[in-house]
Amino acid sequence: MTNDSKDRHVLAAAIIAKADIIVTNNIKDFNAKALTPLNIKVQSPDNFLSGLFDKNPEEMVQVVRGQSQKYKKSPRTFIELLELLSKQIPEFTTKVLCHEDR
How far apart are CA 32 and CA 18, in angstroms? Predict the structure, then answer.
């Protein structure tokens, strides 16, 4: 395992779980060339969610709508949740918003 030593447990868990993607904002600590023989890719949360959206836009919109309804202590509308999420996953939230504006 040639990735950063402080993240080797993540790669080890992915190998044991037979995962094909590691989702992290810490992409720089996972060498894509070293992951290739293991058939594991690394993606940011934004890229991962955007890919899921591209495959299933209606379902992903429903997931976000459902999540917005789960906030009880500090209720959030669908749009408020997207605004909050846009700071971390801007591509995904833009896709959701554009889909809803059609």
Answer: 17
Comparing 77 with 4, the larger pLDDT belongs to: 77
Residues in the chain: 102
Distance between CA 27 and CA 22 in Å, rounded?
9
Domain count of the fold of the chain: 2
Residues 59 and 96 in one domain: yes
Q: What secondary structure letter does DSSP report for 19?
A: -
| Residues 6+ away with beta carbon under 8 Å from 15 | 38, 40
Question: Are 51 and 94 in a shared domain?
Answer: yes
**36, two tokens:** 């290739």
Question: What pLDDT digit, counting tens, does each position of 22-74 carry?
Answer: 999 988 888 888 888 899 999 999 999 999 999 999 999 999 999 998 888 88
How far does Cα 83 stand from its chain's mean position? 16
| Cut 0.70: pTM above it | yes
